[in-house]
Amino acid sequence: MDITSVAASGMLAGELRLSTGAANVANMQSDGAPGGASAGTAAYQPLRVDQSSLGAGGTTATTQAVTPSSSRGYDASASYADSSGMVAVPTVDPVTETSQQIYGLAQFQFSAKAVSAGDAMMQAVLDIRT
Question: pTM score, two decimals?
Answer without folding.
Answer: 0.84
